């Protein structure tokens, strides 16, 4: 990842304001993702991949459904190794995620970028996207489908961490385990949240590759 | 209970169960069992270096696991009890689970059995089964959670370990109760967990003398720990300040493994 623009841009400043300043000074590009977002995005990407791949190996030790994940796409080599990876990367995922939530709320980024979401807006934008009429020219503004998916994956991230904690500590955190319907059901919740995140990832990575300059924006910021 | 899944179901081929079990075992011929065998194309691409196929990765993971031991010891509340269930909730049949088949499980003669006590204790006498059975017993119906993820509810009756530790004059300021089993299985238990009110020297399952499958004549039942930290066929206990390792702990399972 690159931090080359960090010296010249106010990272925690609101992009809208940075945007106006840039236009006033005639700057050619405006900041879409401040440095903290980019850093946290890529830390999260690595932690998520480790958690998902090691989690699949852990799943294979006692599958919930009638299938296992091919060992070739899992991580850890065996159950014990997968558990070591999972319980190491969980700290990175949870701490990075917590900081992201705090900054997202405090800087107003969540409110500005993700709200409001309306059912009619989502349906309209989804229809436009599927018929190839949805504009992606302004990367700093999320359409209604993006807002829904980004908000959804943040919620899935919160649920995956909390349900994970509940099956890690079903005695010490038994109130949390009870919230998820008890130990056995919490395992299904954990799996479902993972599946939602993987589903998001497929769409997210595909579009990041297809939509011009979107990957660049998450690397250099604009 | 321990590791490899093989349910005690009548008519199931035990040979096939063992074959299933060995699939879950680490490849002992490989030096790096923790990191080895992982396919990490994506991660390698993202980070630009092969983080997995290195001793450094395994070293870091082991350190994090030690850190996680400390975190779990801090989270552990000696007054928090594991949830209990009605007798009707007991899982039947309760799974048999080990790294060997039931045929290969220790077959102990109760008359010859002795429970040896050593280390930081005042009274190091060995205990016969009759002497152990004479100790006060309580019943618990709690959830057994395996490191593999599955869980089952069981009914266990026996003597609280803290009662026995007091009886033999154990130094409860020591760090560990280290257990050794008839087949050579070992596991260390931290002292705060050993003193937990629900940690039990178990002699009965579902009101019957503990069957061979569940650890006859004695199992250590610890509902605040994963199953592999609940040793069966226990023949010896040492009170010690040294970390003496354990069968699965030495292979990479987190040593505290608290629930």
Write a concise synopsis of the structure shown:
Chain A is mainly alpha-helical and 222 residues long. Chain A has 9 helices and no strands.
Summary keywords:
heterodimer; A: mainly alpha; 2 domains; 9 helices; B: 259 residues; alpha+beta; Sulfite Oxidase, Chain A, domain 2; five-stranded mixed sheet; 10 strands
Q: How are the elements arranged and paired?
A:
The complex is a heterodimer of chains A (222) and B (259).
Chain A: H1 15-24, H2 35-61, H3 79-106, H4 109-114, H5 119-130, H6 144-168, H7 174-179, H8 183-210, H9 214-220
Chain B: H1 14-24, H2 41-47, H3 55-75, E1 114-119, E2 127-128, H4 129-133, E3 138-145, E4 151-160, H5 161-167, E5 176-181, E6 186-190, H6 191-194, E7 200-205, E8 208-209, E9 219-221, E10 234-240
Parallel strand pairs in B: 1-10
Antiparallel strand pairs in B: 1-2, 3-4, 4-7, 5-6, 5-10, 7-8, 7-9
Textual characterization of the structure:
- Chain A has two domains: 32-107, no CATH class; 115-222, no CATH class.
- In chain A, 67% of the residues lie in helices and 0% in strands.
- Chain A has helices at 15-24, 35-61, 79-106, 109-114, 119-130, 144-168, 174-179, 183-210, 214-220.
- The radius of gyration of chain A is 19 Å and the shape is globular.
- Chain B has a domain at 76-251: Alpha-Beta Complex (Sulfite Oxidase, Chain A, domain 2), CATH 3.90.420.
- In chain B, 21% of the residues lie in helices and 21% in strands.
- Chain B is built from six helices and ten strands; from the N terminus they run H-H-H-E-E-H-E-E-H-E-E-H-E-E-E-E.
- Chain B has helices at 14-24, 41-47, 55-75, 129-133, 161-167, 191-194; strands at residues 114-119, 127-128, 138-145, 151-160, 176-181, 186-190, 200-205, 208-209, 219-221, 234-240.
- Chain B is globular, with a radius of gyration of 19 Å.
- The model of chain B is unreliable at 1-12 and 27-43 (pLDDT under 50).
- Classes of the chains: A mainly alpha (222), B alpha+beta (259).
- The interface between A and B is large, with 36 and 49 residues.
